[in-house]
Amino acid sequence: GRVDKGGHRHFMAKEIHEQPAVIDACLSHYLDGDTVRLREGEIDFSGVDRIVMVACGTASYACHVAKYWFEQIARVPVEVDVASEFRYREPPLSDRTLAIFVSQSGETADTLAALRYASGKAQILSIVNVDTSSIARESDVALPILAGVEIGVASTKAFTCQLTVLALLALKAGADRGTLTAEDGKAHVEALRKMPALVSQALAVEDRIEDIARSLAEARDVLFLGRGAMYPLALEGALKLKEISYIHAEGYASGELKHGPIALVDESVPIIVLAPRDHLFGKTVSNMQEVMARGGRVVLISDGDGLAAESAAWRTVEMPRAPAIWAPILYAVPAQMLAYHTAIAKGTDADQPRNLAKSVTVE
Ligand code: G6P
Fold this sequence. Notes:
By secondary structure, this protein is α/β, with parallel strands linked by helices. The protein is built from 14 helices and 12 strands.
């Protein structure tokens, strides 16, 4: 049926706010008690010796996050590539390779071409929002993300639902491969079941984000930093901001700061640090201190523990506490809202950014 903005100014805002509900629906679809069940077809990760993940844009950043999850939980090597590179590189694949294609639309030309290259060489799994799409039809198994229709060109709820399916798949992979105990698996499922409520809490920081966004709108360049699974989220935060506000933004691994981007830092460059208090938090704090010593204005997005430990930031945004491993699902929300409100402050069209298409069906 027809989709309306449900009282929001833009589809993007509506889609950001739908996330608790769609993540919840996605979890319900794949969870049977404490067990991950794939109703659409069987994947047995015990016979897989390597995973390659291929996608474009925001979907490729979901793959980058999932690499951390698969490697940590299932001890399986993962490669991530953008489809436009993968398709022409002729990468070696075998019948023990699981090739995962992630696409909201299921119609992105490069991703489809990459899938066709892998077809017959590796086992093909896709993760899609449109289950009648070409990518879904040409896969051995196609898993829906159940995000509902996404209209805003900049992907939001599809990203967090992609992450949700990938998180569950990583748990299944760990169980299949014997690298995750039943007890730890159960604890992870319990934590994931709390994500919709935590995402709702994250949405409550919108007024504060709006305030920060008014300052970001003045910037010419913005840096996003993260470590571990928050590094790909820094890439996604930068992508969202440039897509809809047209401000130049770069995402960097916090530890790479001194290998280049620190040369850009002065009072005019806001630095968004995505850092839940985890075992690497102290390292990120020292990276932050390096930029603050050069006049950089740091926006620290962290939980209560992180903000208590580091109070010198220019602005702070408090996220609820969550297990560090699943924090990317939660921290996607302030990154999306930051981009959205910066676009509003600049007066750009958040739903229909110039030069961009929702689905890129030609090469
Ligand atoms: C375009 C859209 C992005 C999207 C990308 C991949 O660039 O503007 O939001 O992430 O395509 O699209 P897909 O449908 O394959 O996820």
